[in-house]
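Ticket opened by: R.M.
Priority: normal
Category: complex prediction / small molecule

The reporter submitted a protein together with zinc ion and asked that the result be attached to this ticket for the collaborator who will pick it up next week. Submitted input follows.
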Amino acid sequence: AEEYPKVKRTANFKILDSTDVSYFRSILSNDEILQSQSPEDLVSFNQDWMKKYRGQSNLILLPKSTEKVSKIMKYCNDNKLAVVPQGGNTDLVGASVPVFDEIVLSLRNLNKIRDFDPVSGTFKCDAGVVMRDAHQYLHEHDHIFPLDLPSRNNCHVGGVVSTNAGGLNLLRYGSLHGNVLGLEVVLPNGEIISNMNALRKDNTGYDLKQLFIGAEGTIGVITGVSILAAAKPKAVNAVFFGLDCFDTVQKLFVKAKSELSEILSAFEFMDRGSIECTIEYLKDLPFPLKNQHNFYVLIETSGSNKNHDDEKLSAFVSETLNSKLISEGVMAKDKADYDRIWTWRKSVPTACNSYGGMYKYDMSLQLKDLYSVSEAVTERLNAAGLIGDAPKPIVKSCGYGHVGDGNIHLNIAVREFTKQIENLLEPFVYEYIQSKKGSISAEHGVGFHKKGKLHYSRSDIEIRFMKDIKNHYDPNGILNPYKYI
Ligand code: MLT
Ligand code: ZN
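Result attached by the on-call engineer:
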């Protein structure tokens, strides 16, 4: 909410009136509309998960069909009413909440699984299907959704596609740009563009669906997704390691790729700050290692033969321990142990958020530079005396992420947001990333948080192309306004 005064409401957008609401009531049933004179009543739609961004919408539309989404969009376009599409609202850059009085178009009621073909692995569903439900359905059919995230219990399939989230297993299953086989999208003028046929290959000109993957709802509303599910691994396991330095993390990664090869399915790292925060947050859960370390690595394997995979993994663990590459490591004994090990990784974002609040960065860098951004930032905060040893320091720097994807998340957990901290962090972080030719958003998107910052990672001509695309699809600019484009 602190950041919102930086923009002004666009005067061209119509202010919602009773005629508009009557129109929406004429096409929607009572359970597809939430309206209140007080935006406070609608806070779960107006405010993001981190409680950093908060809009003032009075109207939430929750249509149950693509045709209704189309009618809504056509009406809003004809009448210049601004709209923000919203999935599970777990986004991390202020992309899925209104800034002012935009109508919230929630996809939550578009939640049917449409089709699954166990031979090809093609899964088709509405955009509002919760990721957990997609996982569960596919599990029952011996498959898995090709993406998993800490927010899986709330995020929507359409939302992760709009965000182009990467998740915990990108290393194994690849990105959504490869796994999404087709999309159904409602354009701002109400037209429905659909290529849900799900062909693995289709080289007839531009691959239009790619534009909507990661567009964050700025040029169309994704209403349906066709995606390639992977066969369910018959055996999974995990190990948790403690290490001294990031150099060793990289060595371990090389070794894991070469020795675990086809069964390697995740390689995640966390630094000391991330785990300290998570220990405080998880309180009663016993930490899997005896000692605390500078770095921790979680390695997951997924394969088809439990004995073979476990043998391979335990040989890998003994060898790394014997060669003194790592200081300490444990391998899960059973499924409950495996889940517990993952809890230490998946809880990091919530643990940081519970500290008070967090400044959050999500960056891509060359692997050799991946942790250097955290060191540079920590040094600045340290020099300002903010990272003390007090029972609870003002600032806690937490770096973690997806080593295989060259993606670090840097959460600067704070007791409160202050201008001093903000000025130490920005534009420093962005300039640092630019100097290393990295990306200021690896997988969380740009949203409102990184509005005006694309130039740190994109050239003028790329930004011009993006604006051309936005103007082409959404000439009135009604879709998810005030955000990055
Ligand atoms: C993660 O890797 O845990 C997700 O990107 C979420 C986050 O960093 O908050
Ligand atoms: Zn992540």
